[in-house]
Amino acid sequence: MPKIPHESFTCAAGCTVEATLTLIGGKWKGVILYRLLTENVLRFNELRRLLPNITQRMLTNQLRELERDGLIARHVYAEVPPKVEYRLTDYGQTLALVIFALKAWGDAHVRQANTETRPA
Hints:
Strand content: 5-15%
Oligomer: single chain
Number of strands: 3
């Protein structure tokens, strides 16, 4: 059964963590935000190349949700073929510390997991 997110976050301690995870949670949003933090501006197909395991439909949906939540901006250039670029908004930039902290923790986790699974 899918989890239904809260519509407002006026609840007990920890609820703000849920609010944050609602915005950046899932398999791809954090990675998309990280790529936009490190690359600054990316076109749709550049994101597809950087995330080879994501489907076009999933990437489109994740980008739409991030745009709807005000974390990224989409700029469409009036040319043929259409050129679309994505970048973090100022609001999205405020997640930099969170995203880089997740990356640092993930790097440490992968190192530890690799150390524990290596034969002695």
